[in-house]
Design goal:
Bound molecules: FE2/S2 (inorganic) cluster
Number of helices: 2
Shape: globular
Structural class: mainly beta
Radius of gyration: 18 Å
Distance between the termini: 50 Å
Strand order of the largest sheet: 5-6-7-8-9
Order of helices and strands: EHEEEEEEEEEEEH
Strand content: 35-45%
Low-confidence stretches: none
């Protein structure tokens, strides 16, 4: 059998995953944009964890890769630079500050609008960072802008 060579050390990409970059490089830069099946995706390295999401904000397509990260009730959120929408890095939920007018002294509370931004699965293997191809059988609000900006020139960081 010509194919059975146990000593071969060929570097292989894990099946079907898209290579984003070197783990060390992204840890240093803290963020990187990449194309995943044509769509703009941003990978953040924040407080010891990698997170990937569509780079174009679900609201009107703002560049999340240029946003700042803020902690809201223990959840790391990216703040869209265009209209300051907050999106959790972990789940892609849109957060909003709402008040309950029925309370005696209403104070704004952060609440979730549900998952709005498509999150991408990150895999670290052998010092490389990979993102899984999106499962398009499920849709998210950010898909509209991911499609709109598909195969465009990409974003300056
Ligand atoms: Fe992101 Fe409006 S485009 S908040």
């Amino acid at each position: 059998d010509l194919h059975s060579s146990d000593t071969e050390t060929v570097e292989r990409e894990p099946d079907g995953l898209i290579l984003i970059g070197k783990e060390d490089d992204i840890k240093k830069s803290q963020r990187i944009t990449a194309k995943v099946n044509g769509r703009e995706v941003v990978v953040f390295y924040h407080e010891g964890k990698f997170h990937a999401m569509d780079s174009r904000c679900y609201h009107e397509g703002g560049p999340l890769c240029l946003g700042e990260i803020e902690d809201i009730n223990g959840q790391a959120c990216i703040i869209c630079p265009w209209h300051k929408y907050r999106i959790t890095l972990e789940t892609g939920e849109g957060l909003y500050e709402g008040i309950n007018p029925l309370e005696p002294s209403p104070t704004p509370q952060w609440q979730s609008k549900g998952v709005k931004q498509r999150i991408h699965k990150v895999t670290i293997d052998n010092g490389n960072v990979y993102v899984s191809p999106p499962d398009l059988s499920v849709s998210f609000d950010s898909d509209y802008f991911a499609d709109k900006y598909k195969n465009s020139g990409g974003l300056a960081m």
